[in-house]
Design brief:
CATH class of the largest domain: Alpha Beta
Radius of gyration: 25 Å
Structural class: alpha/beta
Oligomer: single chain
Bound molecules: nicotinamide-adenine-dinucleotide
Strand order of the largest sheet: 13-14-15-12-11-17-18
CATH topology of the largest domain: Aldehyde Dehydrogenase, Chain A, domain 1
Number of strands: 21
CATH architecture of the largest domain: 3-Layer(aba) Sandwich
């Protein structure tokens, strides 16, 4: 059978094996091998073939990476915003030059369609890099004044030091970029642990930083397990801040460890985004939006549409049309140009997703999907799935599934729709669909989430913050708001009187 994606995949695989022959760790400006004594094999989830076996990092590698970051900090933090901006503009240019290489590596390790890597992950990362190249020049403390009458005050905004970051596997390149870019733009240095399943593009990203002239040690990557390398990085005494993106369960463990060493903490955790369709909505737009918003990245997206609440008059039509549109989405080889949807990240994740759907069969109705697609059993594929008739408090409505599964529920009054939308522990993202500006505006005010879209679901932009409310975490990625995480402010106070006995010394010396 002719397979149009075959040669592109083979090239990407050969490239990965050659490129990472020196090792899959990036410490002090170069690739090296991990010293844990264990290996991990990156597997292409669309075929089950091995892509690369690499030596995992151990705690000694974390120590070496943190030492490199600590050594690089004084020099990097002393550069001017203009110098860092120049370096990051060069960084964006290197990424643009190497865009196709990055897109192929991302698709290979994740199984995501090449069109998604080419049109979303890689351009988004280049844009983010260019954004921070500009934003760093606006980084400032508040200029202040003479509040006491006897002093001049101002506020300095300073980098924090060595940042330890941990990233998930769903958007490995973008997650690495969202962590690394604001941190280094603000003058910090960083050690990032990618998910061990997907280290390739984080390593390429660090290498591109070096190619752009960013000094050795400013960006380091340690690819190891969460238990060993992740925990050691979070607990490390020379790491001043932990920035974590991943599940809420692991986020809680990370928070405990970070608290024990009183670290600055930024947590981007799970989501279960509601998709709220009022009865005056454009039904066709809502159906298109629900399918695209639920299936993006095979549903492995923390902001994916996962719970559609549809007002009763539109409910039946919405269910029928959404199921039909889901069935038209083309699953296949991520490297083939006509593929819309790739596999899940791994067989384990596919089975986990299937487990949620199988358990739901006893209390809900699987309208479409709910199975491994015929002819694609060799990969970690799962059919786009729509589930109806589930109770609000059921597992499929409440838990993050992280796969191509949308659950749909009816509602009657606007009050009820908004209440149901808010009725999970998560609060990362949501959307409201209506042509009535007052209804939509009410939903944006009352839904508790870090982002609420109106008549769309998913788009992100570098200029705007991304981050959760409630159990989805705290702190922001992207935008100038991310500088609040990666900087600390200092009050500086100058005496203006030039006298030895200050007025306030009365409190110590009395009336002498
Ligand atoms: P995960 O929590 O299992 O793992 C995330 C990272 O933490 C990985 O690098 C992993 O190795 C590491 N880790 C695991 N155990 C650890 C420990 N004990 N100490 C330190 N590090 C540890 O998540 P995942 O399965 O890789 O990714 C999916 C999750 O990520 C979903 O819950 C999703 O919602 C979330 N996510 C959130 C955002 C966001 O912006 N809020 C973005 C993407 C993904």
């Amino acid at each position: 059978m002719h397979n149009p994606g075959h040669s592109t995949r083979t090239q990407a695989q050969e490239h990965a094996q050659q490129h990472f022959a020196p090792g899959a760790q990036y410490i002090a400006g170069g690739l090296c091998k991990g010293t844990s004594g264990h290996t991990h094999t990156v597997v292409d989830p669309s075929t089950g073939e091995d892509v690369l076996t690499y030596s995992l990092a151990g705690t000694a590698d974390v120590d070496a990476a943190v030492a490199a970051a600590r050594d690089a900090f004084p020099g990097w933090s002393a550069t001017t915003p203009g110098e860092r901006s120049d370096a990051m503009h060069r960084f964006a240019a290197v990424l643009a030059d190497r865009a196709e290489e990055f897109a192929r590596a991302e698709s290979l390790q994740c199984g995501k369609p090449l069109k998604l890597s080419r049109e979303f992950d890689v351009p988004g990362t280049i844009d983010n890099t260019a954004f921070f190249a500009g934003a760093v020049r606006q980084l400032q403390g508040q200029s202040a004044g003479e509040y006491s009458g006897d002093h001049t005050s101002y506020v300095r905004r300073e980098p924090i030091g060595v940042v330890g970051s941990i990233a998930p596997w769903n958007y490995p390149l973008q997650m690495a970029a969202w962590k690394i870019l604001p941190a280094i733009a603000a003058g910090n240095t960083i050690v990032l642990k990618p998910a061990e399943l997907t280290p390739l593009t984080s390593l390429l990203f660090a290498e591109a930083a070096t190619q752009a002239g960013i000094p050795d040690g400013v960006v380091n990557i340690v690819a190891g397990t969460g238990r060993e390398v992740g925990e050691h990085l979070v607990a490390h005494p020379d790491v001043a801040m932990t920035s974590f993106t991943g599940s809420t369960a692991v986020g809680k463990r990370v928070a405990e460890l970070a608290t024990s060493t009183v670290k600055r903490l930024h947590l981007e955790l799970g989501g279960k985004a509601p998709f709220l369709v009022f009865d005056d909505a454009d039904l066709e737009a809502a159906v298109q939006g629900a399918v695209a918003g639920a299936l993006i990245n095979t549903g492995q997206d923390c902001t994916a549409a996962t719970r559609a609440y549809v007002q009763r008059p539109l409910y039946r039509e919405f269910v029928q049309q959404t199921a039909a549109l889901m069935e038209s989405v083309r699953l296949g080889d991520p490297f083939a140009p006509d593929t819309d949807l790739g596999p899940l990240i791994s067989y384990a994740q596919r089975d986990r997703v299937a487990g949620f759907v199988d358990r739901a069969r006893s209390y809900a109705r699987v309208v479409t999907g709910g199975e491994i697609p015929k002819g694609l059993e060799h990969g970690a594929y799962y059919r786009p799935t729509l589930v109806a008739d589930a109770a609000q408090d059921s597992e499929i409505v409440q838990s993050e599934i992280f796969g191509p599964v949308l659950v749909v529920l009816p509602f009657d009054s606007d009050d009820e729709g908004i209440r149901l939308a808010n009725d999970t522990p998560y609060g990362l993202a949501a959307s409201a669909w209506s042509r009535d500006v007052y209804r939509a505006n009410r939903a944006t005010r009352e839904i508790k989430a870090g982002c609420v879209w109106v008549n769309d679901h998913i788009p992100i932009i570098s200029e705007m913050p991304h981050g959760g409310h409630k159990a989805s975490g705290f702190g922001k990625d992207m935008s100038v708001y991310s500088f609040e995480e990666y900087t600390q402010i200092k009050h500086v106070m100058f005496d203006n009187t030039a006298v030895a006995r200050k007025d306030w010394h009365r409190t110590i010396f009395g009336d002498r």
